[in-house]
Design a protein that fits this description.
Elements lengths: L2 H13 L2 H8 L3 H15 L4 E4 L2 E4 L1 H25 L6 E7 L3 H13 L5 E7 L2 H9 L5 E6 L4 H10 L2 E10 L1 E5 L20 E4 L22 E4 L2 H11 L2 E4 L5 H4 L3 E5 L5 E9 L6 H11 L7
Parallel strand pairs: 3-4, 3-5, 8-9
Antiparallel strand pairs: 1-2, 5-12, 6-12, 7-10, 7-11
Helix pairs in contact: 1-2, 1-4, 5-10
Length: about 300
């Protein structure tokens, strides 16, 4: 298997035509077909099915193409940086569950870098997408949590995707709510006291397993639960409905505003905030700098 063969199948899949791909790659169609056939025989799978409508990617082919696209992209980066000697912007991308402290750490990182020299990206998104973004090289890092309930399932997924979880800090569980909430003045809050208020949860889309929930204690039978897609809506629901969510207690008032507070939940349960990365792949300098900034946020708890 060669990088050239990977480039061939990626181009065919993108154009959905052997003829068009041959023209794009400046190769004859028989030679292209032969290269793909050799690759399929080596792998022991069918990548494409040819019919009168063109090219159809098989299920096995779709899985293979996910890795092939990553390898082709990395090959192009190596070509540009070390062979063509082309100067490229330093890149860094991070994905995260809906954590304001992780966004604020990204802002601090971006503020320290010279404009025009870097290409940065931040994705505050669903749990499964955080994992998938790191798996598919869309992000170098992903910030998530694990606890006694989801740890086995999350670690199994990470292992199958050649990823690893690196802990940053262990946190108690806090109730995040509006400062106008009837319970906002308490030193600690029990689950029984929360019974008459709606629990707020981040929507996880098609991957709506309890193991992917961003809130701990997701399996409890709440009287009312309301799901939201973004952090701004969640904060509005806290204010408008006296809703609450369960979190780490690491709060960034600069981003969320000073209208909400985190109060310890009366429980011995804990959660571990950490980051995921690809196994056996060292962090870039920007990745190391981001993690160094992120570690400082473990002490920013109310």
């Amino acid at each position: 298997m060669t990088l050239t063969q990977l480039q061939y199948v990626v181009t065919i899949a993108a154009l959905k035509s052997m003829n068009k791909a041959a023209g794009e790659l400046f190769i004859s169609q028989p030679a292209l077909s032969g290269a793909v056939r050799d690759l399929e025989e080596e792998l022991g799978i069918r990548i494409f099915i040819r019919n009168n409508k063109g090219i159809v990617v098989t299920t096995e082919g779709e899985e293979f193409l996910r890795y092939a696209r990553q390898m082709v992209e990395l090959g192009n980066l190596v070509q540009e940086r070390f062979i063509s000697k082309k100067e490229t912007k330093k890149k860094f991308s991070v994905s995260m569950q809906h954590y304001s402290f992780a966004v604020e750490a990204f802002i601090e990182l971006a503020g320290e870098l010279a404009l025009g020299e870097y290409e940065l990206a931040v994705h505050e998104t669903k749990t499964y997408e955080v994992i998938d973004n790191v798996k598919t090289y869309r992000s170098e890092l992903g910030v998530i949590y694990i606890n006694s309930f989801n740890e086995k399932a999350i670690r199994k997924i990470l292992s199958s995707d050649a990823l690893e979880f690196i802990p940053l800090y262990e946190c108690g569980i806090s109730v995040y709510l509006s400062k106008k909430h009837p319970l906002a003045g308490k030193d600690r809050i029990t689950m029984e006291e929360l019974n008459d208020y709606p629990c707020l949860s981040f929507e996880q889309g098609d991957r709506n397993s309890f193991y992917f929930a961003e809130e701990v204690m997701s399996t409890l039978d709440y009287k009312q639960i309301i799901k939201a897609d973004d952090r701004a809506t969640m904060l509005n629901l806290m204010t408008g409905l006296n809703g609450y969510t369960l979190c780490s207690g690491i709060i960034c008032q600069d981003l969320n505003g000073g209208f909400h507070t985190a109060i310890p939940l009366d429980t011995s349960d804990t959660m571990t905030i950490g980051y995921i990365k690809r196994k056996n792949m060292p962090l870039s300098l920007l990745g190391q700098k981001y993690i160094a900034i992120l570690k400082r946020y473990g002490s920013k708890r109310e």
